[in-house]
Structure formats: structure tokens, C-alpha cells
Amino acid sequence: MSCVPKRALRHDTPAFSLIEVVLALGIVSFCVVSLLGLMSIGISASRASQEDTVIALATQYVLTDLRKQSHSTLSDTNYSFDFSGVPTSISKQAVYYQCSVKIFTGLSPFTSIGTNASQSSLTFIWPGHTNSTGNNATVFWTSLAAY
Fold first, then answer.
1. What pTM was computed for the model?
2. Where are the beta strands (DSSP E) in the chain?
3. What does the pLDDT read at residue 104?
4. Could you tell me if residue 11 is inside a domain?
5. Is residue 8 part of a domain?
6. How high is the pLDDT of residue 109?
7. How many domains does the chain have?
8. What pLDDT, on a 0 to 100 scale, did the predictor assign at position 38?
9. Which of 65, 96, 117, 132 would give a disulfide with 145, using CB separation of 3.0 to 4.6 Å?
10. Domain containing 74: what range?
């Protein structure tokens, strides 16, 4: 005869089996990994959007500066901007975006636009403080008229 009562051997309390726990952990970890993947895509899209916005603001600054100049004195030039798009000439490390302006007078690469107008190309390169070949670049073409 056993000295353990029968009531102590019964398992009436509800519990999860080991297979159920492992399956639940697998589903949760799959969801977490999926969310981490989506977060990295979202961060990349946010950074690209920020860069596009800063490039647009820097382009507006460069074009405004070029339009302030006399048409006869337009020449190739370079501009530097920091990470937030503010024009800078402080140090090489503070430069994040670089803009190289090339002025085409008379016959442009596309068409002749007359003597009172010229075309220019604005080439933005970023990050500007590195010399790596992995830099991003965007080129804008615009016309400048003398008036």
C-alpha cells in the first residue's frame, strides 16, 4: 500500500505542455523578426526622404544665389552644406553635401538657347566628407536667363 494519497497524483490544474510553449515562442519570435525587418526599411525610407528634402532646399539656395549674380559674371563654382542643408565653409568634416555648378553658355549640351540665357548643371554629392566611391549623386539641369 502506498502512503501517497490518490488526490495528490491527479493533475486537475490547467497547464501548457512543452510543445505548446515552444510553438508560442516560435510564433512570437517570427513576429519580432518581421517587425525588426520592417523597422529597418522604414528607417531607410525616412533617411532617403530627409536627403531628398535637404537636396531640394540646397538646390533652391544655389539657384537663388546664381540668379542674384549678373549673367555676364556667371562661372563654375562649388557650394558646401552641412547635414541639415545649411550652407557652410567651416571645415571638411562639417560638409555633408557638396554642390558643383557648371555653367554652359552659348551652345549647351542640349540646344542653343541664345545669348541672353545659359544652362547650368548642379551636381550634388553626399556624404561630402568622405572620399569613398559609395557616395550618392544627383544632377539637376536648369536654365538661367538674363533680364
1. 0.69
2. 77-81, 97-105, 117-126, 136-145
3. 82
4. no
5. no
6. 53
7. 1
8. 94
9. 117
10. 17-145
